[in-house]
Amino acid sequence: MPRNIAVIGAQFGDEGKGKVIDFLAEKADVIARFNGGNNAGHTIVAEKKKFILHLIPSGILHRNKINVIGNGVVVDPEVLFEEIAHLSRGGIKVTPENLVVSSSAHMILPEHIEEDKAKGSKIGTTGRGIGPAYAAKAARKGTRVIDYIQKKEKYSEKLKPFVKDTSLLINQFLDQNKKILFEGAQGTLLDIDHGTYPFVTSSNAISGGICTGLGIGPKRIDKITGVVKAYVTRVGNGPFPTELNDKTGERIQKAGNEFGSTTGRARRVGWFDAVMAKYAARINSFDSMIITKLDVLSGLEKIKICVGYRRKEKRTEEFTTNLEELENSEPIYIVMDGWDDDISNVKQFEDLPKNAKDYLRRVEQLVKIPVSMVSLGPGREQTLILRRNEFF
Ligand code: GDP
Ligand code: IMO
Ligand code: MG
């Protein structure tokens, strides 16, 4: 059994990481965020209540868990305390017992938000000040949580009880064999180094970001799972080879309720891209894949999967982050038969319609990574485990 599991977005974010973390958190001791900030929107549906978490890790709905905001995260204190108040109104208490913030995380300051709102439109950023806060960090003129506290700013006193050396803490938890979930924000194709630059976010959303964003060594990560939607979505600008600008796309967008959790923007929609998923598997060292939103494809007569790209008359199966090449990559599809049945309440893999099983098996074959979990709806109970060994 793994002692810790990384949950990483394998596409352009919004793959359903929040749901997966909340599901796995039941058996975990610690849930830790290592990248991004409140550009994230992680949706959890528990006991018919819906919560969208932006900054606080998705383990917070469970009692007696420790949620960690690591040094790789950028923290907007106003958002943090708003989120704490919002959770409190929903009956969830957030205290220094269940939430810890790294003393060396960097702060998002009002001027970062202003700058992002003024300059982020080409990329289509969330306008939350993420890019400017990370830019200040890289330029060595940022404000760390510890600096902010010492300067006696507006939220310094309120923040203080939550603040610790989280690298020390996480390493102690690892030594104690505590069960830890590493919660990725955004997705591999939005990663600052390995995404579709410049149409990316400003942090490392890939599994490698766990080490820098929490202060642990790479040997300490046991299992790495990639979360993939059964199709692809993207909010904001940038290349998207399998994008659908037709009725089928509209249908999937509607059925999947593909509107952003953070900004409410409509998410662009396209077919599953096995080339992109294989790239994500390589960059992250996925042990397995978690496929979400399979239920959304129900009722489609035919379902396409991108298995390669045609670039300048040549076929390739390698993804590229060269924008010009990517924009000139024509997807090559295989076509699978769909299924009509509503699968959102299926409890066992065997009970899925044959064509849904075939779709999953084909995705597995193409990406060359086993599927360990399938999600059939936003609720905790709408989850199938295919490979027990990958989880707690
Ligand atoms: P995250 O950013 O990766 O945590 O994903 P988001 O929360 O932004 O977006 C995923 C959306 O899909 C949320 O509204 C979830 O409640 C919902 N969701 C997650 N898994 C499933 C699923 O298997 N089926 C359906 N229909 N919805 C899901
Ligand atoms: P979760 O964790 C989807 C996108 C923005 C924009 C680009 C840069 O919910 O999966 P930023 O504000 O980060 O500078 O914006 O990245 N983006 C996301 N898209 N899910 C997210 O997070 C995202 N976080 C940022 O739309 O295109
Ligand atoms: Mg999201």
Largest beta sheet, briefly?
A: 10 strands, mixed
Q: The CATH topology of one domain is what?
A: Adenylosuccinate Synthetase, Chain A, domain 1
Q: What's the CATH class label of one domain?
A: Alpha Beta
CATH superfamily of one domain: Adenylosuccinate Synthetase, subunit A, domain 1
Overall, the morphology is globular
Our count of helices gives 12
The order of strands across the largest sheet is 9-7-5-2-10-1-11-15-19-20
Average pLDDT value?
Answer: 97
Stretches with pLDDT under 50, minimum 5 residues: none
Topology:
Layout: E1 4-9, H1 17-25, E2 30-33, E3 42-46, E4 49-53, E5 66-69, E6 74-75, H2 77-89, E7 99-102, E8 106-107, H3 110-119, H4 130-138, H5 145-150, H6 156-159, E9 163-164, H7 166-175, E10 180-183, H8 208-214, E11 223-229, E12 232-234, H9 247-255, E13 268-270, E14 272-273, H10 274-284, E15 288-292, E16 302-311, E17 314-316, H11 323-327, E18 330-337, H12 354-367, E19 371-375, E20 383-385
Parallel strand pairs: 1-10, 1-11, 2-5, 2-10, 5-7, 6-8, 7-9, 11-15, 14-16, 15-19
Antiparallel strand pairs: 3-4, 12-13, 16-17, 16-18, 19-20
Bound molecules: guanosine-5'-diphosphate (GDP), 6-O-phosphoryl inosine monophosphate (IMO) and magnesium ion.
